[in-house]
Automatic annotation (TrEMBL):
Pfam families: Sacchrp_dh_NADP
Residue intervals of the Saccharopine dehydrogenase NADP binding domain: 8-111
PANTHER family for the chain: CARBOXYNORSPERMIDINE SYNTHASE (PTHR43796:SF2)
Entry-linked InterPro entries: NAD(P)-bd_dom_sf, Sacchrp_dh_NADP-bd
Protein name as it appears in the record: Saccharopine dehydrogenase NADP-binding domain-containing protein
Organism: Inquilinus limosus
Lineage, uppermost ranks: Bacteria, Pseudomonadati, Pseudomonadota, Alphaproteobacteria, Rhodospirillales
Amino acid sequence: MTEGRLRILILGGYGTFGGRLARLLAHEPRLTLLIAGRSRAKAEAFCRALGGAAETVPLAFDRDGDAAAGIAAAGAEIVVDATGPFQAYGEAPYRVVEACIAAGADYLDLADGADFVEGIGRFDEGTRVRGVAVLSGVSSFPVLTAAVVRHLARGLAHVDSIEGGIAPSPYAGVGLNVIRAIASYAGREVRLTRDGAPASGRALVETRRWTIAPPGRLPLRSTRFSLVDVPDLRLLPALWPGLSEIWIGAGPVPPVLHRGLNALARLV
């Protein structure tokens, strides 16, 4: 262990989102970035190309294997799970979380799987005993949406409904695991709130169209959004009791691709 450096283990560290995180942290000389994934060769190639002031260490790590041994051997102080898809983590989805708590390492992930994020609260007591932090869903959904709602709700006596969506740039790489995550719930029933009561809707089948109008600027073009299964649908009603409705969508482009996804989802 290098003296004075904070050791951060990034699972999926050479992937789409893990790689972005590593690039953002690479300038910091007080860090040791442990770039981990199933392929040590890919981790080594990524570290060679990364540059920056941080120390980088390539590691072979299979989250479906002995996670506890891998985390302990790495000497990680913080573990970031940027792998996914979190919707397909199998019968023991929290093995990395449990390994981090046992090792005394802080944990956070970029999960957007509703079941996974909703269930993370079961570890609250254990983390308090061990004195570690476990943060799930540190991603566009639900962290950024919750922050936006909090900001917009300032000064309001009551929040009646929440409608939101994300419209990614066509130039933004999404990664294979994002596609796998979407495919796992496309066309299936997802839990949400309608008319103040628990309800359901079909993911990527229900659509809404919004024109985004930033204050003081010309409106953006009208964008089609499709319902997605994200943690917000389950978690935000607990933060704002009394919601009559919550609906969250995604507006991928180009439109022809989006309509193709809608058509395929209807076949499920």
